[in-house]
Amino acid sequence: MGALSCSPLILRCLLRRPPPPSTAAITTRLHIPSITPSFLKHTPPSISIPISLPTTLSFSPISRSLSTTTIITTTETDDLSEVEINDDPPVETETESPVDARISSTHKELLSKLKTMSVKEKKELGSYANSLGKKLKSQQVGKSGVTDSVATALVETLEANELLKLKIHNNCPGELDDVVSRLEEATGSVVVGRIGRTVIIYRPSLTKLKAEEKKKQAMKVFLKRRAAFKSSYQGRTQSRGQSAPPSSRSRAYRRS
């Protein structure tokens, strides 16, 4: 009977709900993690996985772009080269002015008249050349003779000076008269003086004719301007003279 009477008490104790926890217990529970020592703390290990990215992937688009740019530049240079080859520069035709045409015609006339020059004119030119003294240009013809290079050099000197003294050496091939005639034909000049193996040749210069023509044109322009200035000055003086009598009258009236 005793055992049976104890059984309902045991059942009640077992079935009784536990009392609610107090505030002190709650605070102790809350502060328990801070009291735990550091060696009991569990820190999860940091896992570092090495990741190796392929370097070729980042540079592949750049290399492609570079290749495309090189292709474009090569094509552009090819196009430019084709344009430079195909495009021919325009040929500029120099139109001769009427003044230059007239000067060239007079020069040709003078050259044609050299052979028909009188002895008197030749003597005058020869004496004028001798009066120049050291100012007269002089050259020599040696063993090479009258070649093309010698003729071009003589023509250049004659173009600048019109008169030239030539000394023909003994080693020059050919007779003296033949050499002189060859000089006249090669240079288009005429002999105006001759002493021994030294000759003086004359050839009219085209550049000097142009310079003289320019001087003439400048003188004409100057004379025209001076005449216009004189006419304008005379007109001003006449206008001042016409306006002078009224002023003199007013001055005479003031004095009276």
Automatic annotation (TrEMBL):
GO cellular component: chloroplast
Keyword match Repressor: no
Protein's UniProt keywords contain RNA-binding: yes
Coiled-coil region(s): none
A Pfam family annotated for this UniProt entry: CRS1_YhbY
Ranges where the record places region Disordered: 230-256
Source organism superkingdom: Eukaryota
InterPro entries: RNA-binding_CRM, YhbY-like_sf
Domain CRM: 115-214
Record's compositionally biased regions (Low complexity): 238-250
An MF annotation (GO) of this entry: RNA binding
Keywords noted in UniProt: RNA-binding
Protein name: CRM domain-containing protein
Organism: Ambrosia artemisiifolia (Common ragweed)
